[in-house]
């Protein structure tokens, strides 16, 4: 073979490598642009509960079929936006996340012709909000999430709702309770944790929030299965705890990963 022939082979190989590198760069740039949840990754949706309440929600989708899912239940007087730091971080780890406005809050105020206002709720009305989590789970499963690989994260009264629902649904694989109470609006969270059984629980509270700290200590003592308690400095409650404690978001996500078998494939090309 002649030198020009070898040169021709080398040049074609070089061009091929350069083309592949350029293609990889283009793909990488395109992927990077979708790493931050925005309008393309976070979908706004509505769905109905079994008793006819229309719930508004934000869904962070991932590309992997049968991905693990997380449902976020906010505290009294809040809305789904308060979960954003945690939902976005969990989404980057491959969790499909659904945060919704609990009935009577935000954009979830319609039940047929009736307008709902959480400030007028009786204990029975609060307990009926457990149906909101059931509807959120159905919405996640319809999106392709693995029904047996879902966790529920709740704050304040949302923690009571999360514990009550998880106690009734054996498919729920884990719960995270921020600033829980024991006896609010007719919920008996200790009994719910006992009924929930051997499945994992993460409790999070601030040291100077004496009520939640005492509640967490009782729940940890009574939990039949694996129960971990994380305590943070300050007096922040609920999702405010995530903002006030720099490590709280990361610790919650890292706790969930081995339990829910995170796919670690957010909504971007592999």
Describe the structure in your own words.
The protein is globular, with a radius of gyration of 23 Å. The model is unreliable at 1-40 and 265-270 (pLDDT under 50). It has two domains: 1-33; 38-260, Alpha/Beta hydrolase fold, catalytic domain (Rossmann fold, 3-Layer(aba) Sandwich), CATH 3.40.50. The chain is 41% helix and 20% strand. The chain has 270 residues and is α/β, with parallel strands linked by helices. Strands 1, 2, 3, 4, 5, 6, 7, 8, 9 and 10 form a ten-stranded mixed β-sheet that branches. It has helices at residues 3-33, 84-92, 123-128, 130-142, 157-168, 189-196, 210-222, 240-244, 248-260, and strands at residues 42-48, 53-60, 69-73, 96-100, 110-111, 114-115, 150-155, 172-178, 201-206, 227-232.
In short:
With 270 residues, the chain is α/β, with parallel strands linked by helices. It is built from nine helices and ten strands. The chain has two domains: 1-33; 38-260, Rossmann fold (3-Layer(aba) Sandwich).
Layout of helices and strands:
Layout: H1 3-33, E1 42-48, E2 53-60, E3 69-73, H2 84-92, E4 96-100, E5 110-111, E6 114-115, H3 123-128, H4 130-142, E7 150-155, H5 157-168, E8 172-178, H6 189-196, E9 201-206, H7 210-222, E10 227-232, H8 240-244, H9 248-260
Parallel strand pairs: 3-4, 3-7, 7-8, 8-9, 9-10
Antiparallel strand pairs: 1-2, 2-4, 2-5, 5-6
Helix pairs in contact: 2-9, 4-5, 5-6
């Amino acid at each position: 073979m002649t030198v020009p022939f070898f040169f021709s082979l080398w040049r074609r190989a070089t061009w091929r490598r350069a083309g592949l590198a350029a293609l990889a760069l283009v793909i990488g740039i395109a992927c990077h642009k979708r790493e931050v949840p925005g309008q393309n990754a976070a979908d706004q949706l509505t769905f109905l509960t079994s008793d006819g309440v229309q719930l508004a929600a934000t869904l962070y989708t991932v590309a992997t079929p049968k991905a693990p899912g997380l449902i976020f239940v906010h505290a009294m007087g809040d809305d789904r936006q308060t979960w954003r730091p945690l939902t976005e971080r969990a989404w980057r780890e491959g969790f499909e996340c659904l945060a919704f406005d609990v009935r009577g809050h935000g954009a979830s105020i319609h039940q047929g012709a009736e307008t709902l206002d959480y400030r007028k709720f009786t204990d029975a009305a609060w307990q009926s909000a457990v149906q909101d989590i059931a509807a959120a789970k159905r919405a996640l499963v319809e999106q392709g999430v693995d029904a047996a690989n879902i966790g529920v994260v709740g704050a304040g009264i949302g923690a009571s709702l999360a514990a009550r629902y998880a106690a009734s649904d054996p498919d729920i694989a884990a719960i995270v309770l921020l600033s829980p109470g024991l006896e609010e609006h007719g919920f008996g969270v200790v009994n719910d944790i006992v009924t929930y059984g051997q499945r994992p629980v993460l409790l999070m509270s601030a040291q100077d929030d004496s009520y939640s700290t005492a509640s967490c200590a009782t729940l940890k003592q009574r939990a039949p299965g694996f129960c971990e308690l994380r305590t943070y400095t300050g007096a922040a409650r609920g999702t405010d705890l995530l903002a006030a404690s720099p490590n709280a978001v990361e610790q919650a996500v890292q706790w969930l990963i081995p339990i829910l078998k995170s796919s670690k494939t957010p909504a971007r090309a592999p």
